[in-house]
């Protein structure tokens, strides 16, 4: 994507996994990658283990955020059953930056032998189109009783799958992003795999694992292109 017209405000890849070791054991492993040594305890860390680990809404939430003093592009998120990597600043590139960093981080984690199985892979992109109503400028046409409603404030959620990749796509207009005062549209797309269990044993294939991650990105980009107009697709070089 062309960096000068980048609309990506959040991007994160994560895995859900099972392990026999304590969460803190992963902190030392991750510190070997690109000097990710600055460890920040997140608010969830204050909740007692027995409550957190037995609540399905909490067990896959991060407890720690790990940053690098030398690499300000990314942060790593670690919880009892989740490890993820997210952008810190402006998104640059999947091929030349984010995907290689995912490989570097997760090859180190997989080689540590601390993960037994991986039950979910997920990739989320959030785009914020400032001063734009995507229901007016994009490819979405919604009618109710033969009357167009594209000029209304809307929240649209779509859930489906392509091949073995599931996705959730949420589109909203006339909203602000986080604490900004600017108004625009948000396109929030999550692609994920939950029906393919990766067992980290003699049958595990790293190429298959990373090919699946790359496929998540391919489907995510395809679903984004379904929403935006062709002029924007050309500008982004998608």
State the main characteristics.
single chain, 238 residues, alpha+beta, 2 domains, 10-stranded antiparallel β-sheet, two-stranded antiparallel sheet, 12 strands, 37% strand
Describe the protein.
The chain is of the alpha+beta class. It has 2 domains: 1-18 and 116-238, no CATH class; 20-114, no CATH class. The chain is built from 6 helices and 12 strands. The chain has helices at 25-30, 49-52, 94-111, 134-137, 206-225, 230-236, and strands at 8-18, 36-41, 62-68, 74-79, 82-87, 117-130, 143-144, 147-148, 155-162, 165-176, 183-193, 198-199. Strands 1, 2, 3, 4, 5, 6, 9, 10, 11 and 12 form a 10-stranded antiparallel β-sheet that branches. The protein has a two-stranded antiparallel sheet with strand order 7-8. Strand 3 and strand 4 (74-79) form a beta hairpin. Helix 3 (94-111) packs antiparallel against helix 5. The model has no long low-confidence stretch (mean pLDDT 90).
Short characterization:
By secondary structure, this protein is an alpha+beta fold. It contains six helices and twelve strands.
With helices defined by DSSP (H or I, 4 residues minimum), what is the helix count? 6
Low-pLDDT runs: none
Average residue-wise pLDDT: 90
State the separation between the terminal residues, measured CA to CA: 7 Å
Q: Which radius of gyration do the C-alpha atoms yield?
A: 19 Å
Q: Residue share in helices?
A: 10-25%
SSE class = alpha+beta
- Kindly give the count of domains: 2
Name the helix and strand elements from N-terminus to C-terminus, one letter apiece. Answer: EHEHEEEHEHEEEEEEHH
Largest sheet: 10 strands, antiparallel
Number of beta strands = 12
Q: DSSP strand (E) fraction?
A: 35-45%
Coarse morphology: globular
């Amino acid at each position: 994507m062309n960096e000068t017209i980048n609309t990506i405000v959040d991007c994160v890849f994560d895995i859900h996994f099972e392990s026999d070791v304590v969460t803190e054991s992963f902190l030392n492993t991750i510190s070997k990658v690109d000097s990710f040594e600055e460890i920040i305890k997140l608010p969830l860390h204050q909740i007692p283990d027995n409550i957190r680990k037995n609540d399905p809404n909490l067990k896959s939430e991060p407890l720690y955020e790990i940053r690098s003093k030398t690499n300000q592009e990314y942060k790593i998120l670690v919880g009892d059953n989740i490890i993820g990597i997210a952008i810190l600043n402006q998104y640059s590139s999947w091929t030349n930056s984010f995907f290689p960093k995912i490989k570097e981080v997760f090859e180190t984690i997989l080689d540590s032998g601390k993960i037994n199985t991986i039950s979910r892979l997920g990739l989320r992109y959030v785009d914020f189109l400032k001063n734009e109503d995507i229901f007016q400028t994009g490819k979405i046409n919604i009618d109710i009783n033969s009357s167009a409603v594209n000029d209304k404030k809307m929240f649209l959620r779509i859930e489906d799958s392509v091949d073995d990749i599931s996705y959730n796509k949420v589109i909203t207009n006339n909203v602000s992003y986080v604490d900004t005062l600017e108004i625009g549209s948000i396109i929030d797309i999550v692609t994920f795999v939950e029906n393919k269990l990766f067992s980290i044993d003699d049958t595990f294939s790293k190429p298959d694992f990373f090919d699946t991650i790359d496929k998540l990105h391919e489907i995510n980009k395809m679903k984004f292109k379904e929403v935006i107009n062709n002029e924007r697709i050309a500008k982004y070089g998608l």
